[in-house]
Specification:
By secondary structure, the protein is mostly helical. The protein has one domain. 79% of the residues lie in helices and 0% in strands. The model has no long low-confidence stretch (mean pLDDT 77).
Length: 95
Amino acid sequence: MVFLRILHGIACGIGVPPAMSMIAEIMPNDWRPFMFIIFWSFTAVGETYGAAGLVIFMPELKEDAWKQVHRNLYAKNPVGIKFPMRDQIYQIVKP
C-alpha cells in the first residue's frame, strides 16, 4: 500500500514542473503570480471535487453497477461545463 501511495504521488506530480515552466514562459510578467495562484487553487478544487464524488457515490467503498454510470457522469461534468465556454475563454486569453 505504501508503494502504491508513492507511485501515485510520482504519477500525479510528474506534470507539475512542466506546467509551472509553461506558465513561467508563456504568461506576461504581471499575469504570472495570478496564474500560479489559479493553477494551485484549481488543483485544490479538483481534489475536493473528487473527494466529494467518492463520498457521494462510494460512501462505504463498495462497488455497485448503477453507481458506475453516475460516477462516470460526475467525472465528466467539469469537461461538460468548460467545453461550451471554450470560445469565450479563447477570446479572453487571445493575444
